[in-house]
């Protein structure tokens, strides 16, 4: 999936991390569809992405809590949904099944596009409105 202007909301750290996230998900998709079946390389990239996501979600959630963001609960639930689906990638059966991994990664990409233009945009607007960097 290509980066789109609508993914950019004007909060520097958030925009930067969203770009990194997309690059990393795309790398995973490429590693699955390249057909070279390097499970270790895939695992490495997936673990990296898992950590990056956790850090990104945590940071957004810290901002929400610190500044009394009223939509925090629903937003955090969406993060948890992503983590739950992402973890399915590490299931041995899925790891060795390119079709299943690809389907899961596309689900994550759909989540990404939807979450960033809705929930993350609302959060960004809130932060910008309150001059929070
Ligand atoms: Fe988010
Ligand atoms: Fe985000």
Please summarize what this structure is.
With 133 residues, the protein is an all-alpha fold.
How would you explain this protein's 3D organization?
The protein has 133 residues and is mainly α. The chain has a single domain (8-33, 41-129), classed as Four Helix Bundle (Hemerythrin (Met), subunit A). It is built from six helices and no strands. The longest helix has 28 residues, at 39-66. It is elongated. Residues 14, 18, 56, 60, 120 line the site of one fe (ii) ion.
Radius of gyration over C-alpha positions, nearest whole angstrom: 15 Å
CATH homologous superfamily?
Hemerythrin-like
* Ligand list: fe (ii) ion
Give the class from helix and strand content and strand pairing. Answer: mainly alpha
Number of helices: 6
CATH architecture: Up-down Bundle
Distance between the termini: 28 Å
CATH class label: Mainly Alpha
Let me know the average pLDDT: 93
Beta-strand percentage?
A: under 5%
Overall shape: it is elongated
Largest sheet: none
Give start-end ranges of low-pLDDT stretches. Answer: none
How many E strands? 0
- CATH topology assignment: Four Helix Bundle (Hemerythrin (Met), subunit A)
Q: Helicity, in percent?
A: over 70%
Order of helices and strands: HHHHHH
Q: Give the number of domains.
A: 1
What are the key terms here?
133 residues; mainly alpha; Four Helix Bundle (Hemerythrin (Met), subunit A); binds fe (ii) ion
List the helices and strands and how they pair.
Layout: H1 12-33, H2 39-66, H3 72-87, H4 92-95, H5 98-117, H6 119-129
Helix pairs in contact: 1-2, 1-5, 2-3, 3-5, 5-6
Bound molecules: fe (ii) ion (2 copies).
One fe (ii) ion (FE2) is lined by residues 60, 75, 79, 115, 119-120.
